[in-house]
Specification:
With 184 residues, the protein is of the alpha/beta class. It has helices at residues 6-18, 32-47, 67-77, 95-98, 111-120, 132-137, 157-162, 169-174; strands at 48-49, 59-64, 81-82, 85-90, 103-106, 127-131, 142-147, 150-156, 166-167, 177-179.
């Protein structure tokens, strides 16, 4: 048995740890920002009131976003329901698909694809959620912001009301800001 002095043993361990052969590639960790936004989307269902729907019709949350956000959303929505209706993430490939959503989320980098969808649901009972204050100016109801590494949101009360939805006072109180105007 060969005994190594402590200094040599430490050096050998350090080399083995730093060696590319000894380090396995780790899958990227899910983005905390995506998880927080997905949780917000789910919680909006508790603080916004939609017109009555048939109880057997699923509550559709539609997202036009990157795959990392879709994965976070799927994890968050798994086995959830809204008012006794199953909560599902629905595909949104067309304007007609968007008209059947209860919530329509347009992720950052997808505003061009989301613009016609946003216009199509403008006067329908669809809560529109997107990224930033510019989203509100384009007619969206809720815009996510990143502020001091925290996800916050702004609400356009006019867009919520135009959609025939009612936002609870609790939701309005936790918003970073509530604007009465927005795109009309």
């Amino acid at each position: 048995m060969v005994l190594l002095n402590p200094a040599l043993r430490c050096a050998l361990v350090a080399v083995l740890i730093a060696s590319p052969c000894s380090v396995r590639a780790q899958p990227p960790q899910p983005s905390l920002e995506n998880d927080v936004k997905a949780a917000f989307l789910y919680n909006f269902t508790r603080f916004v009131e939609w017109p009555p729907s048939p109880p057997d019709e699923p509550f559709r949350l539609c997202a036009v976003a990157d795959t990392a956000f879709i994965a976070a959303l799927d994890r968050t929505l798994a086995d959830e329901s809204v008012g006794g209706r199953p909560l599902v993430r629905a595909e949104t490939r067309s304007v007609e698909d968007a008209r059947h959503c209860s919530i329509l989320y347009v992720g950052s980098g997808h505003s061009e694809q989301g613009a016609p969808l946003l216009a199509a649901v403008r006067d329908l009972p669809v809560l529109t959620v997107g990224e930033g204050s510019q989203f509100l100016k384009k007619g969206g109801a809720i815009g996510f912001l990143l502020e001091n590494n925290r996800v916050r949101f702004e609400i356009s009360l006019a867009a919520v009301q135009r959609s025939g939805l009612k936002a609870s006072s609790k939701l309005l109180r936790v918003a970073r800001s509530v604007v009465d105007g927005g795109a009309q």
